Each structure stands twice: as C-alpha cells, then as structure tokens.
C-alpha cells in the first residue's frame, strides 16, 4: 500500500522505492541518493592515500604498532604501555600478515582465507531455529559476547575492496548463494577503554581484534565442516553497523556507533556470511533514540 506522504514533495522519489520496512524497523534511514560504499573510502585506507587525512601523526600511529615505537615517560605512553598494546594485537596482526605476499590483508581489507573448504557432505538442517540456537551457543563458546543473525543484504557489502599496496579499487567478489549473516559482538575492557587516547587503551582494542580473529576463524570452520559456505570477516568486506543493528545487537547512536545494552558502544563487531539455514533476529529497541531526544545535547 502506498503511503500518501511518499510523494511529498512532488519532485522526490517515493520513499517506498528506497526505504525498506526492515530499515525502518531497525531505525536505519536510507536516502534516495544511497550508493554502496567503496572500501578505499574508509578512514584507515584514506589515512594512506588521501592528503586531507594522511599526516605525520597518522603514519606514526601505524608505525608504532610494529616493533619500534616512541614511548615517553608519561602514564599511558610508557614502554610498558606500548609493549602491552602491541602484544594484544599480535594474533590479529598474524592473520593480517600471513597472506600479504599474496596481496591480502585478512581481517582488515580482505576476509579470512578458509583453512579447509566446506565438507562435501552437508549436515542436514531440519530445524533452522534449533540450528540458530546451536550456532549462537558455539559462537559464545569460541569467545564472542553477543551474537545475532540477520539476512544477507548486498547494500551493506562494499562495492569494491582496496588493494593493499596501491589502495586502488579491486573486485569484492563473494560466492553466490549467501543468505545469512552471523554478527558477533566482542566487548572491550572497561578500565582500559577509560584511558583513551593512551597507548594503553589500544590494548583493549587489540584484544578485541585478536579475539575476533580467533572466534571468526573457529566458527567459520565449524560451519564449513558442516558442509556450508562461511566467509569470515572482521573490519573488511562490508559495513557491519547496519548488520549489527538488524541482528538485534543494539541501536544506532548519534555517535555513529552501535550502542548495546550490555556494553554501550564499548564493543567490536565481526561477521560471517553463510548459506547455513538460520532464523533471523529482529532489531531491538531499548530507548537510545528516545534518551537522545530528551537530552538534546
């Protein structure tokens, strides 16, 4: 049924042509000028190729995550603080570096490479709801704090990936037949996060990324062992925020982050694209928007 306000003002496209019911249920506003996002335009890629973002400070930030860093005798920035931060990143860094010779940066610009392909024989899923419960249980066993399921939506998938050397666009090809996205939340240490923008706070982020890498690898392989496709993804391949909101993990906040009931915005998200039969969760509202409307700050 057409909404009378669809055609007001008259020179605008009908809202029903670009705003879906599932978007409205999740509190996601999609405009008539929407286009899919290119990975090269994310802030981490732009820090390398965009002169309006790239700076000596941004380059030092990336360099400091290696073996050498410029520590100083200030709380949060000592050698011990940098040592802890960089150690926390070590697992995520191992995944990111293991296929660099092949032009891949897993977890940041490319999805994780599968250790083994899907089993030839598929495990029969007679009850998608029961399988969803099992997948969520396994995901938590492997280390995530939050988990939800939403439909695969190509709008949120990057139009293109970015080459790790040139940052030029390259194809973002995913296999056909993907139907669902498992979205996982990974809470970060409260006390460490409070010390932002110190190097010490980066240890909480590093633990989040390293934990994601392990959980995504394990759950993806579990699904492949059942005979289904599973593409494990961290900071790569697609916009995770709308997926997390649609999977019922939180609300979209004015800070442009997902605000969860359990952790607020102090959480990282990963996702797995799959064709395993699952039941979708619904967006969950718990008053974030209403609170902001009352506060009006």
TrEMBL record:
Protein name from the UniProt record = Reductive dehalogenase domain-containing protein
Q: Where is the signal peptide?
A: none
Residues in domain Reductive dehalogenase? 181-278
Show the InterPro entries listed in the entry: RDH_dom (IPR028894)
């Amino acid at each position: 049924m057409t909404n009378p306000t669809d055609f007001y003002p008259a020179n605008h496209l009908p809202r029903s042509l670009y705003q879906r019911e599932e978007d409205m249920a999740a509190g996601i506003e999609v405009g008539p000028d929407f286009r899919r996002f290119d990975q090269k335009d994310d802030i981490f890629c732009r820090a390398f190729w965009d002169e309006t973002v790239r700076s000596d400070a941004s380059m030092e930030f990336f360099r400091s995550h290696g073996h050498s860093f410029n520590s100083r005798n200030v709380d949060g920035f000592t050698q011990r603080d940098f040592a802890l931060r960089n150690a926390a990143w070590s697992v995520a860094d191992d995944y990111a570096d293991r296929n660099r010779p092949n032009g891949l940066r897993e977890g940041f610009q490319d999805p994780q490479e599968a250790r083994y392909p899907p089993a030839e024989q598929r495990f029969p899923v007679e009850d998608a709801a029961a399988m969803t419960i099992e997948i969520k249980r396994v995901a938590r066993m492997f280390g995530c704090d939050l988990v939800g399921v939403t439909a695969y939506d190509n709008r949120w998938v990057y139009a293109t990936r970015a080459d790790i050397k040139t940052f030029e666009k390259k194809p973002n090809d995913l296999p056909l037949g993907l139907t669902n996205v498992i979205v996982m939340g990974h809470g970060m240490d409260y006390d460490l996060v409070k010390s932002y923008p110190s190097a010490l706070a980066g240890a909480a982020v590093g633990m989040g990324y390293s934990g994601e890498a392990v959980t995504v690898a394990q759950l993806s392989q579990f699904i492949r062992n059942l005979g289904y496709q599973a593409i494990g993804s961290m900071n790569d391949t697609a916009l995770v925020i709308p997926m997390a909101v649609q999977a019922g993990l939180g609300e979209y906040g004015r800070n442009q982050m997902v605000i969860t009931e359990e952790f607020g915005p102090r959480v990282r998200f990963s996702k797995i694209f799959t064709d395993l039969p699952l039941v979708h969760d619904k967006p969950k509202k718990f008053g974030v928007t209403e609170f902001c409307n009352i506060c009006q700050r």
